[in-house]
Write a structure and sequence with these properties.
Length: about 180
């Protein structure tokens, strides 16, 4: 009931919403059983435009894909790596696997240890625009990606109302986006 009330409250602002119930291993705050996650996705699906589920979710991914299809949601299949940026071969494997699981949009968020990681993810995004990617480089070195990756073809960028891990404060991100993408 709490999650649904939050979704309905946010929906009052007439903005498109992405519903996700993140696993603990991919950045979620709590451990939630697969059956509970599926039940939550079923409850929120009618109120959101897109559903984001992790590539590593196995059978939960199949269930969520079915929920998204029935509710006519866009399915975002995401991959998070909080320790490094995958190499080119791994990035390609991630995107191909996400597509094979029915992704409408592929999201890859990876930790940038250095500037080369940011450039590699930018170039991968640019070369694979046709795959409908959302890419973000995490960490302090990756914060520029939130402004720069839309230029390469990343479909969206994001931050949090409580920024951490290289996220740009919301006001600054909006200001930068308006400046560079009028």
């Amino acid at each position: 009931e709490y999650v649904l009330s939050e979704v309905k409250e946010i929906k009052k602002h007439n903005l498109p919403l992405i519903g996700t119930i993140r696993t603990k291993g991919e950045g979620g705050k709590a451990r939630i059983s697969d059956s509970r996650r599926i039940a939550l996705y079923q409850k929120i699906a009618p109120f959101v435009e897109a559903i984001d589920v992790e590539l590593i979710s196995g059978s939960t991914l199949r269930e969520v894909r079915s929920i998204a299809s029935k509710s006519k949601n866009i399915l975002i299949v995401s991959h998070h790596n909080f320790s490094k940026t995958p190499d080119e071969r791994e990035l390609k494997e991630i995107s191909e696997k996400a597509l094979s699981h029915g992704a409408d949009i592929i999201k890859i968020a990876a930790f940038a240890q250095n500037e080369n990681d940011v450039v590699r993810l930018f170039e991968f995004t640019s070369r694979n625009k046709d795959k409908k990617l959302v890419t973000i480089a995490l960490g302090a070195k990756g914060s520029i990606s939130r402004l720069m990756f839309p230029l390469a073809g990343s479909l969206m960028t994001y931050t949090s109302v409580s920024p951490s891990g290289g996220q740009v404060p919301l006001g600054e991100l909006i200001q930068g986006l308006r400046l560079y993408y009028p």
